[in-house]
Amino acid sequence: MKSVIALSLIASASAFAPASVPKTSTAVNAAIDDAFGVSIETGNKCPPLGREILKDAGPDAVKWFQNAEIKHGRIAMVATIGFLTQKLGVHFPLYLGPSGSNCFNPESSDAWLLSSTTGVTFSDIAAAAPLEAIKMVPNAGWFQIFIVAGWFECIAYNRQWAEGRAIPGDYGYDPLGFTKKEGGIESKEFESLRMKEIKNGRVAMMTIAGWVANEAIPGALPVWHP
Question: How many CB atoms lie within 10 A of CB 215?
Fold first, then answer.
């Protein structure tokens, strides 16, 4: 009888015991530090902000963030080239026709219209500052960009999640054939190129952020900029 009463008291007490608070385990911390992209710049450990964001993340969540970083890095690298090209006045003929954007001479007496509604020509775009050029793109142009970006996102989602590709950033687009070499994108030899892409993407994201800030607020970036 005494043992029954004792067990009842223990059960009652445990019902009022505080629930254990989940904490980031050593194993999770190690998994975050071992994620591809963590390198010597941060002491081979995930930075504190990243660790806080990923503290309850599973492998799929870490993979999602890796894909997001790679996509943003690739876009930023293209953006820095586009910004620099526009800022320095380097332009190329559109479809080899009389676009008025011929190399360093954006003027043309036979410029093609970018938008018949707004009357903006490719010559106008060529002579504009980077942020002004963005404002001159008509709504139909932004709609086309949105459609292409959405189409690409569908392909990326299918390859990464439906097909279960193991390597973040592997979306099947490789016009130069880097991934067609022996071992493909999953080979150890390819890891160096993947890491270089991530690092260059990080630099590009900071660069385009600084350039755009300085373009919008002159003097905001107190170092060299185009």
Answer: 18
